[in-house]
Design a protein that fits this description.
Layout (H helix, E strand, L loop, with lengths): L5 H7 L3 E6 L2 H10 L8 E6 L2 H7 L6 E6 L9 H13 L7 E5 L2 H6 L12 H12 L11 H8 L4 H12 L10 E2 L1 H8 L2
Parallel strand pairs: 1-2, 1-3, 3-4
Antiparallel strand pairs: 4-5
Helix pairs in contact: 8-9
């Protein structure tokens, strides 16, 4: 593996970054806030987990990853995933490129519209909160279709994004504590 070039990373970060996320909700979210954030940063958003991130982290273009602690791939050993995440958030080479939400990205989404500090242990735990705060009819955990994602995103503007940044700062920044998030650090990192 190559060596990380931190000086180059800082210089190039203002231009283009490959951002790995868990799913379509995150992809739609980051595309949506692109119109809210005044940033010259070009985010190349891709679906990918920590394994993909590890493989491509030493490319010339800087990489970042946003992990949901709940996202365990079918057939994946949860203990192995825990160790992978732990090494990402603790290793001096990757900790500044690794961002997370525990239990899931919904922890961060909910903090756009309310101060959400309740632990979530499964997807049904956030269903009622997502339906209430984003005016969704159906179960969010069972129906994250484009119409539901669009409805949720319609509630997220610059003010809501500012609220989420502040509120996520007040959550634990220990990725294995529930709830936790370091998304405020992500936005600080990409700020221009």
């Amino acid at each position: 593996m190559g060596k990380l070039k931190s000086r180059k990373m800082k210089r190039k970060l203002r231009n283009k970054v490959v951002l790995y996320v868990d799913g379509d909700v995150e992809i739609d979210y980051f595309r949506h806030i692109g119109i809210c954030e005044n940033s010259s940063l070009k985010l190349d958003i891709k679906k990918g987990d920590e394994n993909k991130f590890f493989k491509e982290i030493y490319d010339e273009i800087p990489h970042m990853i946003i992990l949901d602690i709940d996202a365990v791939t079918v057939g994946q050993d949860p203990k192995k995933r825990y160790e992978n995440i732990k090494s990402l958030v603790e290793d001096h080479k990757t900790k500044d490129m690794t961002f997370f939400n525990n239990y899931s990205f919904e922890t961060f989404l909910l903090n756009h519209v309310c101060k959400f500090t309740k632990p979530i242990y499964n997807s049904q735990d956030y269903d009622k909160h997502m339906r209430k705060h984003f005016d969704l009819k159906d179960s969010w955990s069972n129906k994250k279709n484009q119409a539901s994602r669009n409805k949720m995103l319609s509630k997220i503007d610059e003010e809501a994004l500012g609220n989420a940044k502040i509120r996520s700062k007040n959550l634990s920044n220990n990725c294995f504590r529930n709830p936790s998030s370091n998304m405020d650090s992500f936005f600080e990192k990409i700020k221009t």
